[in-house]
Amino acid sequence: MEKKVITHQCSFCKRTIKVRDQYDMPIYDPSTGFAICKNCVREINHFLDEHEEAAQQEETKAFAGQLDDILAQNKPHIIKQYLDEYIINQDRAKKILSVAVYNHYKRMKYGYLNDDGTEIEKSNVIMLGPSGCGKTALLSHLSKLLDIPFAVTDASSLTEAGFVGADVEVAVRNLYYAADKDIEKAEHGIIYLDEFDKIARKSGANNSITADPGHEGVQQALLKMLEGSVVEFTSRGQRKHPEAPTIKVDTRNILFIVGGAFVGIDDVIAKRLSKTSSIGFGADVQGKDDKPKFDELIHKVRPEDLMQYGIIPEIIGRLPVICTLETLDEDALLRILTEPKNAPVKQYEKLLAMDHVQLEFEEDALRAVAKKAIERKTGARSLKGIIEDVMLDIMFDIPKSDEPRKVIITKDCIENGAKPTVEKLDK
């Protein structure tokens, strides 16, 4: 007995369609008789793709039109002047970052306006400097000036696919959320991979024969992303599986900056620089005081030193700009306490002023704070914590009264935990 052929009329094209299976009439409502055939579904899908492509081109043109204004407002000297207001010292690093960012936007403008086959490569940056010298602070202020999405991701938390931990796509996902889920904005942002030295392969220049889920594999996984590729990731909280909806972000115009303390890199540089042998007759014996200091060595870093440290050559090739930062001495830490717009001392002055209290730090007290930070070997990041310890009791007691007062922090308060001097002021 022959199977009866069912026919339905498409509500869009009005053609009568022979329905052999569900794919001939993908959309059908039996209660109303509303139906759309597969040919109409294909055409609708085609029109939607065309519309999305046209809308994307319009957005790109709109951004390309803004690039002239962005470049005019963010010339290297303007960027450096702005960073000088917040960051003490590190003039060389400020110049390198200012030029890298300016060139990054020029590269984008060239790519949008020229179609001559010439491609200008990305100026991704690698930053090297001791802990607390201002790497993250430099970049967070830079992103505020440029008004672009900026996301920090801890590289040490990343693992290669298949291991427990965060995949490298997390860095792009963090930027997507920093851009308020605006893909267009995210595709022109800055990603900072902190603690990058923690993913150096343990064997240094030699290949590792054992599984290395948190190191060389992560570097390999980062390669395509640094170069510029479409990265696919699931929204936050969703597990990665074939049916999970994904978000796609093109990293071609995302500036990648990687940074870390690179503890021990100075020894690698010193080893390369030491040409004279210290063994045998007539050898130059180098005393402890003759050895070059960290600040002298760090500026002499070369790609081969990073390779020796454990960064794979392919990654180094995609990080053409090397930015080095010096250690902060006592004088620099002293200036950080008082000079920048958001200096710790200024912050506490404003907090106490809200309770009608004047705050004064003696010069010796500030120097004692700087010395304590140097002893802790944490650079500028511990300055606020040291002041917070001293200010705790004062900030607890001050609100008990509304009387105008003056609080003086002395050297004894910092070094021995003495109570700050409180003086009453005339109303």
TrEMBL record:
<dbReference type="Pfam" id="PF10431">
    <property type="entry name" value="ClpB_D2-small"/>
</dbReference>
<feature type="domain" description="Clp ATPase C-terminal">
    <location>
        <begin position="328"/>
        <end position="422"/>
    </location>
</feature>
<keyword id="KW-0862">Zinc</keyword>
<dbReference type="GO" id="GO:0051082">
    <property type="term" value="F:unfolded protein binding"/>
</dbReference>
<protein>
    <submittedName>
        <fullName>ATP-dependent Clp protease ATP-binding subunit ClpX</fullName>
    </submittedName>
</protein>
<dbReference type="InterPro" id="IPR050052">
    <property type="entry name" value="ATP-dep_Clp_protease_ClpX"/>
</dbReference>
<dbReference type="InterPro" id="IPR027417">
    <property type="entry name" value="P-loop_NTPase"/>
</dbReference>
<dbReference type="GO" id="GO:0051603">
    <property type="term" value="P:proteolysis involved in protein catabolic process"/>
</dbReference>
<keyword id="KW-0067">ATP-binding</keyword>
<keyword id="KW-0378">Hydrolase</keyword>
<dbReference type="GO" id="GO:0140662">
    <property type="term" value="F:ATP-dependent protein folding chaperone"/>
</dbReference>
<dbReference type="InterPro" id="IPR003593">
    <property type="entry name" value="AAA+_ATPase"/>
</dbReference>
<feature type="domain" description="AAA+ ATPase">
    <location>
        <begin position="121"/>
        <end position="304"/>
    </location>
</feature>
<dbReference type="GO" id="GO:0009376">
    <property type="term" value="C:HslUV protease complex"/>
</dbReference>
<dbReference type="InterPro" id="IPR004487">
    <property type="entry name" value="Clp_protease_ATP-bd_su_ClpX"/>
</dbReference>
<keyword id="KW-0143">Chaperone</keyword>
<dbReference type="Pfam" id="PF07724">
    <property type="entry name" value="AAA_2"/>
</dbReference>
<dbReference type="InterPro" id="IPR019489">
    <property type="entry name" value="Clp_ATPase_C"/>
</dbReference>
<dbReference type="GO" id="GO:0051301">
    <property type="term" value="P:cell division"/>
</dbReference>
<keyword id="KW-0547">Nucleotide-binding</keyword>
<dbReference type="GO" id="GO:0008233">
    <property type="term" value="F:peptidase activity"/>
</dbReference>
<dbReference type="InterPro" id="IPR003959">
    <property type="entry name" value="ATPase_AAA_core"/>
</dbReference>
<dbReference type="GO" id="GO:0016887">
    <property type="term" value="F:ATP hydrolysis activity"/>
</dbReference>
<keyword id="KW-0645">Protease</keyword>
<dbReference type="GO" id="GO:0005524">
    <property type="term" value="F:ATP binding"/>
</dbReference>
